[in-house]
């Protein structure tokens, strides 16, 4: 069995690929797994950056998450809008910060 088949993809991520009113994802497991790996890696990579910005700018955790979210949404980004939102929720979870969802995305 390859490592790809052993990756546990959170339901919250799989749901990004399920069209409204459907039960089945619109992409294959391989595509979803590849997108998940990208987004999880991105969230992990952003941990130190977010901590540094919190200290450097003297802003709130929510401000840092919002700034990172805006950065993920620039034209030409490698993640979709839904994936960017997931990355931000995951980043908040990894940092043990309240998510933007908890206070309402701006």
Protein described:
The longest helix is centred in the middle third of the chain and has 29 residues. The relative contact order is 0.13. With about 110 residues, this protein is mainly alpha-helical. It contains six helices and no strands.
Q: How many individual domains?
A: 1
Beta-strand share of residues: under 5%
Largest β sheet strand count, sense and barrel closure = none
Shape: elongated
What string gives the helices and strands in order? HHHHHH
List low-confidence stretches.
Answer: none
Tell me the total number of β-strands: 0
- Radius of gyration based on Cα positions: 15 Å
The total of helices stands at: 6
Protein structure class: mainly alpha
What is the share of helical residues?
Answer: 55-70%
Mean pLDDT: 91
Compute the separation of the termini in Å. 43 Å
């Amino acid at each position: 069995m390859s490592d790809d088949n052993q990756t546990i993809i959170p339901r919250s991520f799989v749901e990004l690929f399920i069209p409204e009113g459907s039960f089945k994802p619109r992409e294959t497991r391989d595509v979803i797994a590849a997108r998940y790996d990208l987004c999880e890696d991105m969230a992990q990579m952003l941990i130190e950056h977010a901590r540094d910005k919190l200290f450097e700018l003297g802003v709130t955790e929510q401000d840092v998450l919002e700034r990172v979210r805006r950065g993920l949404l620039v034209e030409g980004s490698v993640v979709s809008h839904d994936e960017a939102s997931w990355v931000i929720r995951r980043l908040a979870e990894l940092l043990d910060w309240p998510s933007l969802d908890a206070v309402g995305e701006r």
